[in-house]
Amino acid sequence: MPDEGAGPSADSHRPRRGAEESPTLRALAEQLSDNVRRGVRKQGEQVVQVPASRYLDPDWFARERQHLFGERPLCLGHASEVAEPGSVMRFDATGIPLLIVRDAQGQLQGLVNVCRHRGMRLVEERSCSARRTLSCPYHGWTYELDGRLRNIPLAEAFEGVDRTDFDLLKFPVAERGGLIWGIPKAGASFDADAWLGPLVDDLAWFGIPDSVLFRRFESERACNWKLVIEAFIEVYHIRVLHRDSIYPFFHDAQSNWHVYNGHERMIVARRGSESEPAWSDDPREVRDRWTYSHLLFPNMIVVVHPDYVSCLSLWPLAPNRTRWSHAMLIPRAKSTPDWTPHWEKTMGLLEQTVFQKEDLYAAEGIQEGLSSGANDVVTFGKLEFLLGEFHRNIAAAVERKS
Hints:
Its cofactor is Fe cation. Keywords: 2Fe-2S, Dioxygenase, Iron, Iron-sulfur, Metal-binding, Oxidoreductase. The protein has about 400 residues and is α+β, with helices and mostly antiparallel strands. It folds into 2 domains: about 25-70 and about 195-400, Alpha-Beta Complex (Naphthalene 1,2-dioxygenase Alpha Subunit, Chain A, domain 1), CATH 3.90.380; about 75-190, Rieske Iron-sulfur Protein (3-layer Sandwich), CATH 2.102.10.10. It is about 25% helix and about 25% strand. The strands form 5 sheets. Strands 12-18-17-16-15-14-13 form a 7-stranded antiparallel sheet, with helices on both faces. The chain is globular and about 80 Å long. The protein starts with about 20 loop residues before the first helix and ends with a helix.
């Protein structure tokens, strides 16, 4: 995505040097640079078709929700949202009321946002800070920030009750690459390093750990969640759908990719990249030449722009209904008030012009078309290889568990 608008000083808002180089990111850039110069495009080996019912069938949708969104690690937010001890973030997108808490020792805690007395929500706000405890607004049961029950008002009325049975339910969370990961299931466990593997280094190289959340834009759209993901893992559509917005900044259908553990790394060639070296020790120069768009399986896209990062999360509500969440991450050093107009303008242009009016518009149009019954299958060409991989990994997870 082009850098729109101007900030207080040239280049001072750009990512800093210092993050360890990712060999895979470099290899992707060098291969794509060679393809652009030779005028060839990377393609998959064959055309792939998936049933149109994958976007319509309530039973398939329920199985996706169970196995992809209830049993696998998901990105729940950015570390800056709970940066200080006592910070609390409410998260409801999975259908289970969750809290991500930074306790007094600075450790992340994943707690279910349900009082163990009568089931009342403990926290109503989207986020809050400087909390020392969590207190139920119904009867005042109070919990430590690590979930332990601290106080029961008029405790004599609960004589004989084992207080340890009433600690808050916990779910596993971990902080990797500046992002917060968790499985929204009490008592679950996961290995964040094994789940992400080398992508942790990618996230660091993108500057995400040194970023802060500028703003989160959320909306509900009338489409299946997968249709939105698909718009960000192929570039075959850019020349037509984005012809009046971002297409002038990119080569036509020029991308490279790599798949790891269901995650998909994609790099897109910006115009002018063919006249520059494929790689540089300075991430700022690389991000001027290439746009990285990573799928963190199953439901988050990380788009790396020249001077900021978009984290796009898709949360399924129904087969034809999705919650869209766009978190704009900006460099910590440029989160001061004098930079606000620059980021406001950038967010507005990207979110309202490209994402809402083009990508999400197209997803809703496809949903309407598929709902008509006109097509029995959806067809992915060789330039849309990653879409076939995406569906293959979904099917493997859903069918293996069912």
